[in-house]
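Revision sheet: structure tokens.
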Amino acid sequence: MATRVVLILLLIFFASIPAVAQIDIGFGPQLGIYKVQELDGVKLMGGAALRLKLTDLLGIEASINYREEEYGGGSARLKSWPVMVTGLVYPIPFVYGAIGAGWYSTSIQYNFPSGFLGGPSSIASESKQEFGWHFGGGAEFPVGSFAKVVGDIRYVFLNYDFSRLPGSDGVNSNFYIVTAGFLFNL
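Predicted:
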């Protein structure tokens, strides 16, 4: 089975070599709003993306963003730098489907109130890396010959495991994100 997958990937790679000279590359800022299922309100997220359209049908995007959220009534504050790699499939030239994976480097600051677990108030922190995956779709529109405006919606599957916050194992932190970006053609 693994041999077949490798052969198919090699076939796709070698079939796209003639198109390498025609790769469309874009780089620029992106801004997003997201809603975590277990939290109230919509949050803001910002970052940058690099997009390569390899053929008329296939593309790939790499992005890095910054986001913050709180859990447990403020007992845990997260700061995360999601690094995502996304495969893009263009059924028509300006509309795409997206599927990919993300690595979430996260720092968690715990702020336990006085009397929590029978002790004095305390602040503790930890860093962890979580893996998540996502899917969605969007559209991109050219702005002259120098840039394009992109927008998409993605659903991200990500579950945090807070080791120091009682009763919060496997917090459902899946979220929707709606992003807009301005990518300059390189």
